[in-house]
Protein backbone atom coordinates (compact mmCIF):
# COMPACT_ATOMS: atom_id res chain seq x y z
CA UNK A 1 0.00 0.00 0.00
CA UNK A 2 2.75 2.51 0.81
CA UNK A 3 4.23 2.46 -2.72
CA UNK A 4 0.79 3.34 -4.09
CA UNK A 5 0.45 6.23 -1.65
CA UNK A 6 3.91 7.51 -2.59
CA UNK A 7 3.00 7.37 -6.29
CA UNK A 8 -0.19 9.37 -5.64
CA UNK A 9 1.78 12.03 -3.75
CA UNK A 10 4.16 12.31 -6.69
CA UNK A 11 1.45 12.25 -9.38
CA UNK A 12 -0.78 14.83 -7.66
CA UNK A 13 1.99 17.19 -6.52
CA UNK A 14 0.90 20.81 -6.79
CA UNK A 15 -2.77 19.89 -6.89
CA UNK A 16 -5.27 20.04 -4.00
CA UNK A 17 -4.32 16.68 -2.50
CA UNK A 18 -2.60 15.62 0.71
CA UNK A 19 -2.09 12.47 2.72
CA UNK A 20 -2.06 12.69 6.49
CA UNK A 21 -1.05 9.55 8.37
CA UNK A 22 -2.13 8.54 11.84
CA UNK A 23 0.03 5.66 12.96
CA UNK A 24 -0.20 3.18 15.81
CA UNK A 25 3.57 2.67 15.65
CA UNK A 26 5.84 4.14 18.32
CA UNK A 27 7.32 7.60 17.76
CA UNK A 28 10.70 5.96 17.14
CA UNK A 29 9.30 3.64 14.45
CA UNK A 30 7.47 6.54 12.82
CA UNK A 31 10.65 8.66 12.78
CA UNK A 32 12.45 5.79 11.03
CA UNK A 33 9.69 5.45 8.40
CA UNK A 34 10.04 9.16 7.62
CA UNK A 35 13.84 9.08 7.70
CA UNK A 36 14.13 6.14 5.29
CA UNK A 37 11.52 7.63 2.90
CA UNK A 38 8.83 5.02 3.51
CA UNK A 39 6.39 7.83 4.23
CA UNK A 40 6.84 11.21 2.60
CA UNK A 41 3.77 12.93 4.04
CA UNK A 42 2.76 14.42 7.37
CA UNK A 43 2.22 11.84 10.10
CA UNK A 44 0.87 11.82 13.61
CA UNK A 45 1.37 9.06 16.11
CA UNK A 46 -1.46 7.41 17.97
CA UNK A 47 1.11 5.16 19.71
CA UNK A 48 -1.38 2.38 20.21
CA UNK A 49 -4.33 0.77 18.51
CA UNK A 50 -6.76 2.38 20.95
CA UNK A 51 -5.22 5.84 21.19
CA UNK A 52 -7.14 9.10 21.23
CA UNK A 53 -7.30 9.58 17.47
CA UNK A 54 -8.33 6.04 16.53
CA UNK A 55 -10.91 5.94 19.31
CA UNK A 56 -12.48 9.27 18.32
CA UNK A 57 -12.62 8.31 14.63
CA UNK A 58 -13.90 4.78 15.30
CA UNK A 59 -10.92 2.98 13.76
CA UNK A 60 -11.25 -0.76 14.23
CA UNK A 61 -8.42 -1.97 11.98
CA UNK A 62 -5.21 -0.77 10.40
CA UNK A 63 -5.02 0.72 7.89
CA UNK A 64 -8.33 2.57 7.82
CA UNK A 65 -8.52 5.15 5.05
CA UNK A 66 -10.76 8.20 5.05
CA UNK A 67 -11.06 10.38 1.96
CA UNK A 68 -11.91 13.92 3.04
CA UNK A 69 -12.90 16.53 0.48
CA UNK A 70 -11.78 20.15 0.17
CA UNK A 71 -14.65 21.21 2.48
CA UNK A 72 -13.55 18.83 5.25
CA UNK A 73 -16.36 16.32 4.63
CA UNK A 74 -15.61 12.58 4.81
CA UNK A 75 -16.61 11.29 1.38
CA UNK A 76 -15.32 7.72 1.54
CA UNK A 77 -13.99 5.24 4.07
CA UNK A 78 -12.09 2.03 3.42
CA UNK A 79 -11.58 2.24 -0.34
CA UNK A 80 -8.51 0.54 -1.79
CA UNK A 81 -6.65 0.25 -5.08
CA UNK A 82 -8.25 1.50 -8.28
CA UNK A 83 -11.51 2.39 -6.53
CA UNK A 84 -9.63 4.62 -4.08
CA UNK A 85 -7.54 6.23 -6.81
CA UNK A 86 -10.62 6.98 -8.92
CA UNK A 87 -12.39 8.60 -5.94
CA UNK A 88 -9.31 10.68 -5.09
CA UNK A 89 -8.96 11.96 -8.64
CA UNK A 90 -12.65 12.87 -8.76
CA UNK A 91 -12.32 14.74 -5.47
CA UNK A 92 -9.20 16.58 -6.69
CA UNK A 93 -11.05 17.63 -9.86
CA UNK A 94 -13.99 18.88 -7.73
CA UNK A 95 -11.61 20.89 -5.53
CA UNK A 96 -9.94 22.42 -8.57
CA UNK A 97 -13.32 23.30 -10.10
CA UNK A 98 -14.45 24.90 -6.84
CA UNK A 99 -11.24 26.93 -6.66
CA UNK A 100 -11.78 28.18 -10.21
CA UNK A 101 -15.35 29.31 -9.44
CATH level 4 superfamily: Glutaredoxin
The mean pLDDT is 87
Characterize the biggest β-sheet: 2 strands, parallel
Return Rg in Å: 14 Å
Q: Which structural class do you get from the secondary structure elements?
A: alpha+beta
Count of DSSP helices?
4
Alpha-carbon distance between the termini?
34 Å
What low-confidence regions span 5 or more consecutive residues with pLDDT below 50? Answer: none
* E-strand count: 4
Morphology: globular
The CATH topology assignment is Glutaredoxin
- Spatial sequence of strands, sheet with the most strands: 1-2
Helix fraction bin: 40-55%
Beta-sheet strand percentage? 5-15%
Return the string of H and E elements. Answer: HEHEHEEH
The second-level CATH architecture is 3-Layer(aba) Sandwich
What is the CATH first-level class name? Alpha Beta
Total domains: 1
GO molecular function: antioxidant activity; oxidoreductase activity
Protein name: TlpA family protein disulfide reductase
Overview of the molecule:
- Strand 3 and strand 4 form a beta hairpin.
- The chain is built from four helices and four strands.
- It has one domain: Glutaredoxin (3-Layer(aba) Sandwich).
- The protein is globular and about 40 Å long.
- The strands form two sheets. A two-stranded parallel ribbon has the order 1-2.
- The model has no long low-confidence stretch (mean pLDDT 87).
- Helices cover 45% and strands 15% of the residues.
- With 101 residues, the chain is of the alpha+beta class.
- This is TlpA family protein disulfide reductase.
- GO terms for molecular function: antioxidant activity; oxidoreductase activity.
- InterPro entries: AhpC/TSA, Thioredoxin-like_sf, Thioredoxin_ResA/DsbE_sf.
